[in-house]
Amino acid sequence: MAGLAALCVVLPGRIALGGQELRWPTLTEVLGEEKTIESIEELEELEELDTLDTLGSLDTLDTLPSLEGRTEERLPIPKVQVDSTTDSRVFLASFYASLTEAGERTVRVLHYGDSQIEEDRLTQQIREALQSRYGGSGAGLLPLAQTIPSLTVRQELYMNGRFVTPQQGPRRYMVHGFKRDQRADGLYGPMGQMAYLSDSLVKGSEQIRAVCKPLQNNGHYDRWQVFADSSVHYSTSGDTVFLSGRGGVYGLSQESRTGVIVDNIPLRGCIGTVFTKIDSTQLATFYREQNVRLIIMQFGGNAIPSNKNPGTISGIVKGLRQQVRYLRRCAPEASFLFIGPSDMLTQENGEWITYPMVPYMDRLLRKMAMEENIAYFSLYRWMGGSGSMLHWQEVGLAGSDGVHFTRAGARKAGKAVAEWMMEGVDN
Known about the structure:
The protein is of the alpha+beta class. It has eleven helices and 19 strands.
């Protein structure tokens, strides 16, 4: 390491050697900007994000079986004809109409997405826009144990009076991830994950205390809802939920009794083809009883880095179409909005360029959305199209990986989606 560091200091980032060009990162690129840690919470958050905040690995990406074994050499990208004259917000008409009921009951919005929406990023801006106009409060659905820090709610988990990490708490089952963490019966609940209370799995897990403290301007909410098996007993006091018994806990919700409730449900590293693994009866019951009137799906980006074949991308979009149809059968009263991937960068011959499959997937997703009568928002086009992520990096709106937004960038993107949606109400 010392030798490589010396090489980075003495020599530039590239040299000619035997007719070939040898490149390596500069010392600045390797070390990055030093961050001052001012609290234990900051250190824990930084370590967790640094360990987990990746676009996804081959071990965790949900790939479709029908795509296995396909070659990934780069092939010519087919042209996709898209009708550019239709404003897809017309497909949100049912949702817009339901907002007139918000003064008398809750109208629920679920935002499913990949790591771009973690920490409640993007979702928070949509929630604020809807609640400021139609009422409502609270962060909505939360898992029993939050593995990724949130900008909206700080969560702590206690067993028998002792603070525990999510990994030390009740066993978690997740629809997306390792096979060992999945269930055969598909009972994951609306968040695609559940925690199982059983003293046979984790000593003392029959005595759980979940503390969920709202942050920033999210302090007000009128009630708790706890979604769990009937064998699980619970009570609430302030920002704390006490649970006992044995069974599954599918989510906790801080919310108002009327107005709009917007749930943030991130699925790290997920392509978005996992919803058909969730029990349809369980989903349909939740969507119906909670008056879910809009489902937002934000996926596609995780398929880009590992796939260079247009046929594979086309197959993944077909898989996403199946997910839309499945969720629509579970939530027939809901409108749907699909948010496509942002611009994403890769390095080719030492230069940062847009992944070739990004614009192709964006066109395919929009075509799919129009054919399925669902709204579509193109993050890629809104950002400025090919290469726009470079500018976003320059102005501090995107991270060094060329894939993820910074928090400021996520706020900007979330506000754009929210404004676009609200313009549809006025129109």
